[in-house]
Write a structure and sequence with these properties.
- The complex is a heterodimer.
- By secondary structure, chain A is of the alpha+beta class.
- Chain A is built from seven helices and 18 strands.
- In chain A, a hairpin with a 7-residue loop joins strand 10 and strand 11.
- The longest helix of chain A is centred in the N-terminal third of the chain and has 24 residues.
- The radius of gyration of chain A is 24 Å and the shape is globular.
- The relative contact order of chain A is 0.07.
- Chain B folds into two domains: 119 residues, no CATH class; 65 residues, Arc Repressor Mutant, subunit A, CATH 1.10.10.
- In chain B, 63% of the residues lie in helices and 0% in strands.
- The longest helix of chain B has 21 residues.
- Chain B is globular, with a radius of gyration of 19 Å.
- The N terminus and C terminus of chain B are likely disordered.
- Classes of the chains: A alpha+beta, B mainly alpha.
Chain lengths: 315, 198
């Protein structure tokens, strides 16, 4: 094991790289990989990252006069300091007053491929967006209504009997009754998994009977058909691996596993149809396609061909 | 995490005590609840551990343990949990290294009661925060301070800092890394009351 002293030095190297130099997607992936290696890495980095972010407030001290060369000398520094401090205090008040539900237009939240975002609502509810997802939050003080345009989101909703929380997805709607649930919308399918509480799955229009969901229930709407099945808690929890940056496979077909990985960007995995039926089990970093390909190669003795932006898996 | 989440960062109810936390939640919790206690933690460790050269490593061990536990279940009292963890860790080390008798470790419950509420971070207002940042920057070694000021205040990129200071990019990196580490020790590890240059 690396000592805490070495880890601290590595974390400082990452923190300065992250905040003071050009930062690419590759850099981010490398950092994510390092962070994923251990909690010791994460706490060391978080501490230094928070430190650099605290110095963000110093940008307020930037002088408007072009007296740059001597600026950091103590004298000019202190002179600018007082006037700016008042401005910073005012800005802080303004930021605190911002409220998601007090804005006129619906707010749109979107993640890029490989992105993830946590949205915290004032009522204590929380929504987490997975890769390539678009979510709209309605305006209005009492409205607790969101629309999932595409992608996948995990909802932890504070119950409020007077203002039920609703999610519209395509032609369907999920109304929560105090709940944790996961919704995934692919091109031609919609899946709702309920982890806790109760929720109602309903059609926006038409007269299909609503479904009252219990924990463990999974509703799948595909090609105009709606199916209700049940899954063990562990299986649903596996589908939430992305919240911790991992993908969990449990007897998953190689072709499905590859499709999962490809949702997150990075090098595209292409699998030979002849090997598509092999079953995979295990937990993988979702931003490390290469490690997954290596594991597949070792486990099944398959051939891996790595190209510029593609990895081919075949016999 | 997106900027929008910051607007509600002082809303106490994101993840609830006892709930598991994912990585972004854990980071936010750690920065919000644990880091502001670092000055008190350092004081506790310095009182209870003879070899001062070990303190920074022990502090990181404590953070690691705290976060490993908190990711499964968020403690309802971060401070009590932090100091209990620190105490247990010192006791483990004492047993392992046979250096000081166990009684030497202060009673954590008495200690955490004695510490003032709220933590420095929570009561800080913008003006005090700026003053603190300025005081901390003033105490950095001159070259490290210059590199950080050029980057954070003038908004220069690393290569531009190197040009401006007339040094190589590698040296800039070293100044920045050591400057950030020293700032962290000052901003989190030291009491928030003003102090003079050493």
């Amino acid at each position: 094991m690396t000592s805490q002293t070495d880890i601290a030095a590595q974390a400082a190297e990452w923190a300065q790289r992250r905040h003071f130099w050009n930062w690419s997607q590759t850099d981010q992936t490398e950092l994510d990989t390092w962070l994923a290696q251990s909690m010791a890495h994460r706490v060391a980095y978080w501490r230094l990252n928070a430190t650099v972010e605290r110095t963000d407030r110093l940008t307020a001290l930037k002088p408007s006069v072009p007296d740059r060369t001597r600026f950091w000398q103590r004298r000019s520094w202190t002179m600018t300091f007082r006037a700016v401090a008042a401005l910073v205090a005012i800005a802080a008040l303004g930021a605190a007053a911002t409220d998601y539900f007090s804005r006129p237009a619906p707010q749109v939240f979107a993640t890029t491929i490989g992105g993830r975002e946590v949205i915290r609502l004032k009522d204590g509810s929380q929504i987490e967006l997975n890769t390539d997802t678009v979510l709209k939050i309605a305006s209005g003080t009492a409205a607790r209504a969101v629309t999932l345009e595409k992608g996948e989101a995990y909802f932890q909703i504070r119950h409020d009997a007077d203002h039920p929380f609703s999610v519209t997805v395509g032609n369907h709607r999920v109304v929560d009754l105090g709940t944790r649930f996961l919704i995934r919308k692919d091109d031609n399918a919609l899946q709702v998994s309920l982890l806790e509480g109760r929720a109602r799955f309903d059609a926006v229009a038409g007269d299909a009977a609503p479904i009252d969901m219990k924990p463990g229930d999974v509703v799948l709407a595909k090609n105009g058909k709606i199916d209700l099945t049940r899954k063990p808690e562990r299986a649903i929890a596996s589908e939430l691996g992305w919240r911790n940056g991992v993908i969990v496979f449990d007897s998953t077909k190689l072709s499905d596993a590859v499709a999962e990985f490809n949702r997150y960007g990075g090098k595209k995995l292409v699998v030979d149809p002849k090997t598509a039926k092999l079953k995979i089990e295990g937990t993988f970093q979702l931003n490390n396609v290469e490690a997954f390909a290596d594991a597949v190669q070792v486990a099944f003795g398959l051939h891996i061909e790595t190209k510029q932006d593609e990895i081919r898996i075949s016999h | 995490m997106a900027e929008t989440t910051d607007t509600t960062r002082d809303d106490a109810g994101h993840s609830r005590p006892g709930e598991a936390m994912n990585a972004p939640e854990l980071e936010a919790w750690f920065v919000r609840e644990v880091l502001p206690l670092e000055a008190a933690l350092m004081q506790f460790l310095q009182h209870n551990w003879r070899n001062q050269a070990d303190i920074a490593d022990i502090r990181q061990d404590v953070y690691e343990r705290v976060c490993l536990a908190a990711q499964d279940a968020r403690p309802d009292n971060a401070k009590a949990f932090l100091f209990r963890t620190a105490r247990n860790l010192l006791i483990d080390r004492i047993r392992r290294e046979h250096v000081v008798p166990i009684e030497a470790v202060e009673d954590v419950d008495a200690l955490s009661l004695a510490m003032e509420e709220p933590g420095p971070e929570r009561s800080a207002i913008a003006r005090d925060e700026l003053r603190r940042l300025q005081a901390a920057l003033d105490r950095l070694p001159p070259r490290a301070r210059e590199a950080i000021v050029l980057g954070r205040i003038e908004g220069l990129q690393g290569n531009e800092i190197a040009q401006r200071m007339g040094i190589t990019e590698g040296v800039v990196s070293r100044h920045l890394a050591s400057g950030i580490s020293a700032l962290a020790d000052m901003l989190y590890g030291e009491d928030s009351k003003p102090r003079r240059k050493p």
